[in-house]
Design brief:
Elements (H helix, E strand, L loop, with lengths): L3 E5 L4 H5 L9 E5 L5 E12 L7 E4 H6 L3 E5 L8 E5 L2 H8 L6 E2 L1
Length: 105
Amino acid sequence: MAEVSIRTGLLDDQNSRHGLCMCRAIDLRRTNLFGRCIIESIILTISGKTASSKAVVFTRSQLEVLGSDKIVTTTPWHTGAVTFERVPMKRLMETVGATGNKIVA
């Protein structure tokens, strides 16, 4: 079994029935500055050897709080260089208290 497993987005119902996505129907609720309830979908789940020993879930706003950097690269699907914004993996693993030396995505 992987030491840390990362899932992004929501899987379809068939995958959910097979236990590949335990958090499919979970949304997180928070309140904005005006007291209105905002429902955010979970877009990232990290499980395995984490500090809590439970799956850690993130919404987009939670990931944005961690800060991001940009990477410029080329891909076979784009013409010329493309810029991607991401949360550095090291920061993400430190946030969840991941241990070990292997990640399965």
